[in-house]
Design a protein that fits this description.
The complex is a heterodimer of chains A (340) and B (1190). With 340 residues, chain A is an alpha+beta fold. Chain A has helices spanning 2-7, 31-58, 76-80, 116-120, 124-127, 132-135, 158-161, 191-197, 206-209, 239-245, 307-339; strands spanning 61-65, 86-94, 98-99, 102-109, 167-174, 177-180, 183-184, 253-260, 269-270, 273-281, 291-298. In chain A, a hairpin with a 2-residue loop joins β5 and β6. Chain B is α+β, with helices and mostly antiparallel strands and 1190 residues long. Chain B is 45% helix and 15% strand. Chain B is built from 39 helices and 33 strands. The longest helix of chain B has 39 residues, at 942-980. The radius of gyration of chain B is 37 Å and the shape is elongated. The chains are: A alpha+beta (340), B alpha+beta (1190). The interface between A and B is large, with 90 and 91 residues. Chain A: This is Cell cycle control protein. Chain A: It is found in: Membrane. Chain A: Pfam families: CDC50. Chain A: Belongs to the CDC50/LEM3 family.
C-alpha cells in the first residue's frame, strides 16, 4: 500500500476547486424572469419618482439676485463702487405663508471654490488651534501666510482671505411698522467642523493668542472679533467662517447663512407680507462675471428642491416598463413558432 | 613593486587569449602541485566552483532595480513619480505617489531575492559536494570539495556518484575500459550510456600522465567533443571518452578522469540557459492597447491644459479664488496651462493601471496552477502531471490554428512491438503475437488474459515473462492496479514494458530454428541465414545489458559497497537494498545466478530493444556487451563470444548502423548491418537469379509491412576478408584521430565498408497508435485547427498512420505530389468548379521531404502556401528536423497564424522551438523535446482538453479580464475628468486621494483577478462536446480592436452617468466637494462591480464571497478611514463624510439611479442577444455559436 501511495505522489488533488468543478450558479436570463423583473423595477422606480417629484414640488424656494448688474436693480450703485460696507436693500412680497423651517442662504455663481490651489491654501494645524502654526503658518498658505511686513497671517491662506463678507438683516413690514425677523446663526456649520476639525487655541482671552499676528488682508476685523454679539462664536469656530471654509463642490453654489428663528409670528415659517433685506455689500463679484443671490428655502427629507431626481426615476421606470412590453412582444414572436 | 600592475595586466590578457582560443592546451597540474597560483599552467581556466546567482548581497538593490527598469511599464510609473516631485506641477503629496510603485518594485525584488537565495543555496550545496582529487604529495586520491577541482586535476569518481566536472576518461575499474553513465540530470534520458577510456592504460598512474592535451573551446553540444594528445602517436578522443558534469556513474566501481572543463565551462552549465521568455499574442495586443491608453491620457490632459488656458483667458480680472504663486504675481496663462498638462497627467495617471501587469502575472500563475492540477491531464502510469515550462503563454493555447505533429511517439506510443519478419524471402506473420497484442488492446480484460496465456504450456525458454508469473504467484489474482505497479517498477528502464519485452514466437519459424540448431554447434551455422538473421538482431545494436534486480538509486550513497544479492523474486516489491556495483562485467561462468530473466536491456532507441527482445524470444539471448565483445547464448544453450572489432554507429545520413565482429568459431570478419530499407537495398551485392529474387520478394514484403503501418528495417551481412579489414582499420584509426572534419571522415570510412551486402531479411515493427488519437484529431479539426503531421517515416507508413488516426479520410483527395504546379492548378480548378464548393474541405496533401525542399524554395513558396491553405490535412514524410522547423516557420510567417508544434524526440526540438507553442510529449525517446518545450504532456490525447478547455478558458478569461481592467480604469478616471469642466480645469479631485488608491488597490482589484482565474463562460463538458466553440479564440479572437473600443466607449458612457446624476442632483445646492464625490465613488464601485457580474457567467461560492466582500471592504475601510482621518491628508477632507452621507436617503437614491442607468445598455444588449432564440446562451457564447454556424 505504501508503494501505491508513493506511486501517485504527483497525482493532483481531486477536489472541486482544483478541478474547477465548484458548484456554480448560472444566471439564466429567461424571459419568464426578466420581463416580470423589469416590470417590477419599472414600477418601483415610477413610485420613487412620483414621491420624489411630489416632495420636491412641495418645497418652496425664493431666489433673489442682488449682484446689481443692471442699472435698475437695487444694489447696482454698491456693485459699481468700492466703498466698504455699502448699504442697499431688497424688497420682496410673500403672498402665502413660506412654510418653516426656513433656511436663509447666500449664493454665488461662477465662483470656483474647487480650484486646485485654492483648496490647498490653508493650514489645518493653525485652524486646529496649534499656536506654533500661528507664528509660522504652513507654506501651503503662500502667498497669504505673511503680510508685507513679514508678520504671520492668522487664519492664513486664500480660502480664509476670500471669506464672504456681505451681511444681511431681514425685516418685515406689517401695516407700516417694520420689525426685525430674528435670524438664528447657531449650528449652521457641520457638527464635525465645529467640534473636531476646527478649534480655537485654549488661551483666554482669545485675543491674546493672536498677538504678533495680523488678520487676513481682505478682512475688516480680526478672527477673534468676527461676531461682536456672541463671544463664543469667534475665532476659528465662527459659524460663518466654518461654512465658508467647507469648500463648495461646484462653481454655482449656495451656502447657509441663517435660519429663520421659529418663534413668535414665525413659528410656522414666514407669513405672507412685505419683507426687506438690508444688505451690507462688500464682496466684489462682478469683476469676474460672478453673481450673488439670496435664497430662502425650506427643506424636506430629500434636502432642497430638486426636480431632476424625480424626473429621472420616472423616465427610467417608464423605460423599464416599455422595455418589458417590447420584450414580451419579441418573446411572443420568437417563442411561439418554436413551440409549433 | 610598481611593475606588478602591468604584469598583472599582461597576464590577464594572456589568460583571455587562452580562454578564447579555438584550441586549448591543457597540462597536468601534478608537477606544479603546491606552487603559487601564478605558476600554475591552467590558471587561466575557471575553477569548478559555480555561481549561478544573479546578484551579490552588496549590490542587490541597484542591480535589481536596473533589472526591473528594463520593463517599460515600470519606467513609466517611475517617470510619473518623478513628475510628482516637480514643484511647478503642484502635486499635493508627492510621497503618496511613491507608494504603489514602491510596493510593486519591492514585491518583485523580494521575489527575485528569494529566487536568488535559492540559487545561492543550491550553488553552495553543489560546490561543497565531496570528490576525490589526486594529490602528488600523498600519492593517492584525497577527498576534497567540488569547488577545489581545477582544470588539469585527476579526479576519481565512484559508482553512483555524480561527476563533478567534465572529465576525459583515462581509466576505469572495468577491464575493458568502460564506464557507464546515466545522463538523466542532463537530458532526462534514463538509459545508460557507455563511455570508453582513452587508449586503455590498464595500470594507470596519474603521475605518469605527461605532456599536454589539446582540446576544443568549450561548447554546449552534449554529443560532441574533440581532443587529442599530440604525442608521438596522435591519440584522439571524442565524446565517447568524456564524462560530463552532472551525470551519474553506474555499473562501474570507479573511474579516473582528467579535468578538461570545469565550473561554468562544463557542457552541462553551458546548456543551462535560463527559462526562455515568450510573449503571447494577447500580450502583444495588450501593449498596443496600453499605447492607445497613453494616447487617450495625453489627449485628455491636453484638453485639460487647453481648457485651463481658455478658462484663464476668459477671466477679466483676478478673482479671489485664484491663488497667485509666492511671488504674488500670476504666471502667464500659457505657462500655467503648460504646467497644468503635467498636473493632469498626475491626476489621471491611473488610466494606465499599474495593477494590470501585476494582476496578469497573478492570473497566469493561477491558470498554470489549474492546468497542472487537472486530473484529466495526469498520467497514472508514469505518475506525471502536465508541466508548464513557459509561464506566460497560457492564453495562446486558446488561439491555435495550426498543429504540427510528429508521428512517432506523438501520435503513436513509440512502444515498438515486433510484429512480423521476412527471412530470405519467406514471410513469418507471427499470428500468435498479433493475438497477444490484440488482447492487450482491451484494457479491461488485459491482465487476466495475459496471465491465461502465460499459463499455456509454452516451451519454458520462450516465456520470458516469469516476473509476471511471479507477481501472480505472490500476490494472488493480479488486479489491474497491481499490474500497473509492476509496469511502473520496471519503468525506470527505457523501453521495457511487458508489451515490448514479450514476443510470442511464430510457430513455423520457431520449429525451423530449433531444427537447425538442434544438433550441437556445427559449422552449418555459418551458412544458415536464419541463424545469421537472429545473430544480427542480437548483435547489431548498441543495447547495454545490465542486471534486472539492482534498483538504480539516483541519490548519492556513501556505502555502495554492499554486496550484490541476486534475487529473482524482488520484482514488484520495494527493494530497499542499495544498488550494488558489480566490480566485473557480468560473465556467465562465475555468476550462476545470472539467468536470462535477470537481463535488462537498455537501448537508445525502442526499435533496437524490440529487435533484441525478438531475438531473445527465439533463443538468441544477448548476454553482455562490452566495447570489445558481445556474448550471445544460442538456442542450444551454447554461449558465443564475438569479438567486436568496430561499431559503425547510426547517423541520419546513412540511416543504418553496422557492427563488425569476428566470429569465434569460423574466425571470419563479419559485418552485420541494419537500416532503413532504401539505405540497405541500394548497397546489396548484385546477384542474379535466386538471390535477386530474395531481394524483390523481400521488397514486396516490406511494401506490405509499410501498408500495414509497420516500421521496417532490413538486415544484411557481409563477410570481410582479413586483408580488406586490415586496410580499412588503418583508415578508420586515422579518421578517428582526426580533429578536422572528423565526423565526415568517420562516416566515409563507414560507407567504405558498407557495400556489397547480402540481404538476410527484414523486420516489421509496429508502433501502436496512442489511445484516443483519432478522437483527438477529429475534435481538434472540428475546432477549426488544421493538423499537419511531419514525420521522418516513409510515405506508405505515414499515409497508413494518417488513415488510422483519422487524419486522412476515405473520400479524401490525396495528392501525392511531385509536381507542385500541376497540383496547385488542379486544386484551383477543383475549387473553381461550383459543384465542389462544399467538398473542398476534404482535401489532404501528402508530400515528401525532397518535394518539400523544392516547394519551400523561394520561387515556389507562395504557391505552396496557397496550396496548403486549401488542404484540410497535410502529411509530410521523410522530412529532416530542419525541414520540420522550416515548415512551421513558413506557415507561421506567411499565413500569420498561431502555430503549435508537438513532438517527443530530439528531432522535434527545432520544430518545437520554432512554433508559437511547443509541446513536448514525455514519452520514450528521452527528454530533449520536453526540455525545449513550453508544455510537456504525457499523451497526445491530453492535447484535446489542454486546448479545447484550458486554452479556451485561459484565453477568454485573460482577454476578458484585460478588457475589463481597461474599462474599469477608464470609467473611474473619467469621473475625475468630467469634474475638470466644473473646476476650471485645475486638476482638482473630488475624491480623497487615499480613497482613490484604495479603490484600485483593494476594492476593485480582487474581483477581476477572480474573474480571470475562475470564470467559466462555457462548461468543460460543453467545450469538449462542441469543439466548434474553440473557434471564438482563433484569429482576432475575443480580444479584438472593436471589443476594446466598445468597452472604452461603454466606460465613457458609464462615467458620464456616474458623474452627471449626482451633478444634476446637487446642482445649485450647498454641497461641499468631498460630499459631492462620495456618492460618485460609491456608485462607481457598484457600477464597476455590477458590470463584472454581468460579465461573470457562472457564480460559485468564491465569486459571491469576493464580490460581496469587496463591497463590504469598501464600506468598512472608507468608514474607518473617514472616522480616523481628521486632517491627515490636506487639502482633502474626508472626515465623517461617508457617515453623514449614509444618513441621507438621497445618497442611496443617487447610487441606485446611477448604477441602473449606467448598466442598462450593456445589460440590454447582452440580454437581447441571449433572448432571441438562444435562451441558454450568454453573450460570448452566442457569438461563438454565431460564428460557427456561418
Amino acid at each position: 500500500m505504501v508503494k501505491q501511495e508513493s506511486e501517485s505522489a504527483n497525482r493532483p488533488d481531486n477536489t472541486a476547486f482544483t478541478q474547477q468543478r465548484l458548484p456554480a450558479w448560472q444566471p439564466i436570463l429567461s424571459a419568464g424572469i426578466v420581463i416580470p423583473g423589469f416590470v417590477l423595477i419599472g414600477l418601483a422606480f415610477i413610485g420613487i419618482g412620483v414621491a420624489l417629484l411630489v416632495t420636491s414640488r412641495s418645497i418652496q424656494v425664493l431666489e433673489l439676485d442682488y449682484t446689481g448688474d443692471s442699472n435698475g436693480s437695487p444694489c447696482s450703485s454698491c456693485s459699481q463702487s468700492d466703498i466698504a460696507n455699502c448699504k442697499c436693500s431688497l424688497n420682496f412680497t410673500l403672498t402665502t405663508l413660506f412654510q418653516g423651517p426656513v433656511f436663509f442662504y447666500y449664493g454665488l455663481s461662477n465662483y470656483f471654490q474647487n480650484y486646485r490651489r485654492y483648496g490647498a491654501s490653508k493650514d489645518d494645524n493653525q485652524l486646529y488651534g496649534d499656536l506654533s502654526s500661528f507664528t509660522s503658518p504652513s507654506s501651503s498658505c503662500s502667498p497669504y501666510n505673511y503680510d508685507s511686513s513679514k508678520k504671520p497671517i492668522v487664519p492664513c491662506g486664500s480660502i480664509a482671505n476670500s471669506m464672504f463678507n456681505d451681511t444681511f438683516t431681514l425685516t418685515r413690514t406689517v401695516s407700516g411698522t417694520t420689525n426685525n425677523v430674528t435670524l438664528d446663526g447657531k449650528g449652521i456649520a457641520w457638527w464635525t467642523d465645529y467640534n473636531i476639525k476646527y478649534r480655537n487655541p485654549s488661551v483666554t482671552p482669545l485675543k491674546n493668542a493672536f498677538n504678533g499676528t495680523v488678520k487676513p488682508i481682505n478682512w475688516a476685523k480680526p478672527a477673534y472679533e468676527l461676531d461682536a454679539s456672541d463671544r463664543s462664536n469667534n475665532g476659528f469656530v465662527n459659524q460663518d467662517f466654518l461654512v465658508w471654509m467647507r469648500r463648495a463642490a461646484l462653481p454655482n453654489f449656495r451656502k447657509l447663512y441663517r435660519r429663520i428663528d421659529a418663534s413668535g409670528d414665525y413659528q410656522k415659517g414666514l407669513p405672507a407680507g412685505n419683507y426687506t433685506i438690508d444688505i451690507t455689500y462688500n464682496y466684489p463679484v462682478r469683476a469676474f462675471n460672478g453673481a450673488k443671490k439670496i435664497v430662502f428655502s425650506n427643506v424636506s427629507w430629500m434636502g432642497g428642491s430638486n426636480e431632476f431626481l424625480g424626473i429621472a426615476y420616472l423616465v427610467i421606470g417608464s423605460l423599464c416598463v416599455v422595455m418589458s412590453v417590447v420584450m414580451l412582444i419579441v418573446y411572443a414572436k420568437f417563442k411561439f413558432p418554436d413551440e409549433e | 613593486n610598481f611593475c606588478l600592475p602591468c604584469t598583472n595586466k599582461e597576464d590577464a590578457l594572456r589568460g583571455q587569449r587562452a580562454r578564447e582560443n579555438e584550441l586549448r592546451s591543457l597540462e597536468s597540474n601534478l608537477p606544479y602541485e603546491g606552487l603559487e597560483k601564478g605558476k600554475q599552467p591552467n590558471r587561466y581556466f575557471p575553477s569548478n566552483a559555480i555561481k549561478t546567482t544573479k546578484y551579490s548581497l552588496l549590490f542587490f538593490i541597484p542591480m535589481n532595480l536596473y533589472e526591473q527598469f528594463h520593463r517599460l511599464a515600470n519606467l513609466y510609473f517611475v517617470g510619473l513619480v518623478i513628475l510628482n516631485f516637480i514643484p511647478e506641477v503642484n502635486a499635493f503629496q508627492p510621497e503618496i505617489a511613491l507608494i504603489p510603485i514602491c510596493v510593486i518594485l519591492s514585491l518583485t525584488a523580494m521575489k527575485d531575492a528569494w529566487e536568488d537565495f535559492r540559487r545561492y543555496q543550491s550553488d553552495r550545496k553543489l560546490n561543497n559536494m565531496p570528490c576525490f582529487i589526486y594529490s602528488r604529495k600523498e600519492k593517492q586520491f584525497v577527498e576534497r570539495h567540488w569547488k577545489d577541482v581545477r582544470v588539469g586535476d585527476f579526479v576519481k569518481v565512484v559508482c553512483n556518484e555524480i561527476i563533478p566536472a567534465d572529465l576525459l576518461l583515462l581509466y576505469t575499474s572495468d577491464p575493458n575500459g568502460v564506464c557507464h553513465i546515466e545522463t538523466a540530470n542532463l537530458d532526462g534520458e534514463t538509459n545508460l550510456k557507455q563511455r570508453t577510456a582513452v587508449s586503455g592504460h590498464p595500470e594507470f598512474e596519474p603521475e605518469s600522465f605527461n605532456g599536454i592535451l589539446v582540446c576544443e573551446k568549450p561548447n554546449n553540444n552534449l554529443n560532441h567533443f574533440k581532443g587529442y594528445k599530440p604525442d608521438k602517436q596522435k591519440v584522439g578522443a571524442g565524446i565517447e571518452s568524456l564524462l560530463l558534469r552532472g551525470c551519474t556513474v553506474r555499473n562501474t566501481d570507479h573511474a579516473v578522469g582528467f579535468v578538461v572543463y570545469a565550473g561554468r565551462e562544463t557542457k552541462s552549465m553551458l546548456n543551462n540557459s535560463g527559462p526562455r521568455y515568450k510573449r503571447s499574442k494577447l500580450e502583444r495586443r495588450l501593449n498596443i492597447d496600453v499605447l492607445f491608453c497613453v494616447i487617450l491620457l495625453f489627449t485628455m490632459c491636453l484638453i485639460g491644459a487647453l481648457g485651463h488656458y481658455l478658462w484663464l483667458n476668459a477671466m477679466p480680472v483676478v478673482p479671489p479664488y485664484l491663488v497667485p504663486p509666492t511671488s504674488g504675481q500670476l504666471d502667464r496663462p500659457s505657462l500655467t496651462s503648460f504646467y497644468m498638462f503635467f498636473t493632469m497627467i498626475i491626476l489621471l495617471q491611473i488610466l494606465i493601471p499599474i495593477s494590470l501587469y501585476v494582476s496578469i502575472e497573478l492570473v497566469k500563475i493561477g491558470q498554470i496552477f489549474f492546468i497542472t492540477n487537472d486530473i484529466d491531464l495526469y498520467d497514472e502510469e508514469t505518475d506525471s502531471r502536465i508541466q508548464c515550462k513557459a509561464l506566460n503563454i497560457t492564453e495562446d493555447l486558446g488561439q491555435i490554428e495550426y498543429i504540427f505533429s510528429d508521428k512517432t511517439g506523438t501520435l503513436t506510443e513509440n512502444k515498438m512491438v515486433f510484429r512480423r519478419c521476412s527471412i530470405m524471402g519467406t514471410e513469418y506473420p507471427h499470428k500468435e503475437n498479433a493475438i497477444r497484442l490484440a488482447v492487450l488492446d482491451e484494457p479491461e480484460a488485459e491482465e487476466e488474459v495475459i496471465f491465461n496465456q502465460h499459463a499455456q504450456p509454452l516451451p519454458t525458454r520462450w516465456s520470458l515473462d516469469s516476473e509476471e508469473a511471479n507477481v501472480e504467484d505472490t500476490h494472488g489474482h493480479g488486479s489491474r492496479r497491481r499490474s500497473k505497479v509492476t509496469g511502473n517498477a520496471q519503468s525506470d528502464v527505457a523501453f521495457s514494458s511487458p508489451l515490448e519485452t514479450e514476443v510470442v514466437p511464430d510457430g513455423k519459424l520457431f520449429q525451423k530454428i530449433s531444427r537447425t540448431s538442434s544438433g550441437s554447434l556445427s559449422h552449418s551455422q555459418k551458412t544458415d541465414a536464419y541463424l545469421d538473421f537472429f545473430l544480427a538482431l542480437a548483435i547489431c545494436n548498441t543495447v547495454v545489458v545490465s542486471m534486472r534486480n539492482p534498483k538504480r538509486h539516483r541519490t548519492f550513497t556513501e556505502d555502495s559497497e554492499e554486496n550484490f544479492q541476486p534475487s529473482g523474486q524482488t520484482e514488484g516489491v520495494d527493494t530497499t537494498g542499495l544498488q550494488p556495483c558489480s566490480p566485473h562485467p557480468p560473465s556467465l561462468s562465475d555468476e550462476p545466478a545470472l539467468t536470462s530473466d535477470n537481463l535488462r536491456y537498455e537501448a537508445e532507441s525502442p526499435d533496437e530493444a524490440a529487435l533484441v527482445y525478438a531475438a531473445k524470444a527465439y533463443g538468441f539471448t544477448l548476454l553482455s556487451r562490452t566495447p570489445d565483445s558481445v556474448s550471445v547464448r544460442l538456442p542450444s544453450g551454447e554461449v558465443l563470444d564475438f569479438e567486436v572489432l568496430d561499431t559503425l554507429t547510426f547517423d541520419s545520413n546513412r540511416k543504418r548502423m553496422s557492427v563488425l565482429v569476428r566470429h569465434p568459431i569460423t574466425k571470419e570478419y563479419v559485418l552485420y548491418t541494419k537500416g532503413a530499407d532504401f539505405a540497405i537495398m541500394e548497397l546489396l551485392e548484385h546477384f542474379s537469379g535466386n538471390k535477386k529474387n530474395i531481394a524483390t520478394v523481400t521488397q514486396r514484403h516490406l511494401d506490405c509491412y509499410a501498408k500495414e503501418g509497420l516500421r521496417t528495417l532490413c538486415i544484411a551481412k557481409k563477410v570481410v576478408s582479413e586483408a580488406v579489414y586490415k586496410r580499412w582499420s588503418v583508415d578508420r584509426k586515422n579518421a578517428m584521430a582526426a580533429i578536422e572534419n572528423r565526423e565526415r571522415l568517420v562516416m566515409d570510412t563507414a560507407v567504405q565498408l558498407e557495400k556489397n551486402l547480402t540481404l538476410l531479411g527484414a523486420t516489421g515493427i509496429e508502433d501502436r497508435l496512442q489511445e484516443n488519437v483519432p478522437d483527438t484529431i477529429q475534435a481538434l479539426r472540428e475546432a477549426g485547427i488544421k493538423v499537419w503531421v511531419l514525420t521522418g517515416d516513409k510515405p506508405e507508413t505515414a499515409v497508413n498512420i494518417g488513415y488510422a488516426c483519422g487524419l486522412l479520410e476515405d473520400e479524401d483527395l490525396i495528392t501525392c505530389t511531385n509536381i507542385l504546379d500541376c497540383t496547385l492548378e488542379e486544386v484551383r480548378r477543383y475549387n473553381a468548379d461550383p459543384r465542389n464548393v462544399d467538398t473542398t474541405q476534404n482535401m489532404s496533401l501528402v508530400i515528401d521531404g525532397l518535394t518539400l525542399d523544392k516547394a519551400l524554395s523561394p520561387d515556389l513558396l507562395d504557391r505552396f502556401v496557397a496550396l496548403v491553405k486549401h488542404c484540410r490535412a497535410v502529411l509530410c514524410c521523410r522530412v529532416t528536423p530542419l525541414q520540420k522547423s522550416r515548415v512551421v516557420k513558413v506557415i507561421r510567417e506567411k499565413l500569420k497564424v498561431m502555430t503549435l508544434a508537438v513532438g517527443d524526440g530530439a528531432n522535434d526540438v527545432n520544430m518545437i522551438q520554432a512554433a508559437d507553442i511547443g509541446i513536448g510529449i514525455s514519452g520514450q525517446e528521452g527528454m530533449q523535446a520536453v526540455m525545449a518545450s513550453d508544455f510537456a504532456i504525457s499523451h497526445f490525447k491530453h492535447l484535446k482538453k489542454l486546448l479545447l478547455v484550458h486554452g479556451h478558458w485561459c484565453y477568454t478569461r485573460l482577454a476578458n479580464m484585460i478588457i475589463y481592467f481597461f474599462y474599469k480604469n477608464v470609467a473611474y478616471v473619467n469621473l475625475l475628468f468630467w469634474y475638470q469642466f466644473f473646476c476650471g480645469f485645475s486638476a482638482t479631485a473630488m475624491i480623497d486621494y487615499w480613497l482613490m488608491i484604495f479603490f484600485n488597490l483593494f476594492f476593485t482589484s480582487v474581483p477581476p483577478i477572480m474573474f480571470g482565474l475562475m470564470d467559466k463562460d462555457i462548461s468543460a463538458e460543453m467545450l469538449l462536446g462542441v469543439p466548434e466553440l474553440y473557434k471564438t479564440g482563433q484569429g482576432e479572437g475575443d480580444y479584438r480592436f472593436t471589443t476594446f473600443w466598445v468597452s472604452i466607449l461603454d466606460a465613457f458612457y458609464q462615467s458620464l452617468v456616474c458623474f452627471f446624476v449626482p451633478y444634476f442632483v446637487y446642482q445649485d445646492s450647498d454641497i461641499d466637494m468631498f460630499t459631492f464625490g462620495t456618492p460618485m465613488n460609491t456608485s462607481a464601485l457598484f457600477i464597476i462591480l455590477m458590470h463584472l457580474s454581468i460579465e461573470i457567467k457562472s457564480w460559485t461560492v468564491v465569486h459571491w464571497i469576493i464580490m460581496l466582500g469587496s463591497v463590504a471592504l469598501y464600506f468598512i475601510v472608507t468608514l474607518a478611514y473617514s472616522a480616523v482621518c481628521v486632517t491627515c491628508n490636506p487639502p482633502s477632507n474626508p472626515y465623517w463624510i461617508l457617515q453623514s452621507q449614509m444618513e441621507d436617503p438621497m445618497f442611496y437614491l443617487i447610487c441606485i439611479l446611477s448604477t441602473v442607468v449606467a448598466l442598462l445598455p450593456r445589460y440590454r444588449v447582452c440580454h437581447s442577444l441571449s433572448s432571441v432564440g438562444l435562451k441558454i446562451f450568454n453573450c460570448p457564447e452566442f457569438w461563438g455559436v454565431f460564428v460557427s454556424t456561418f
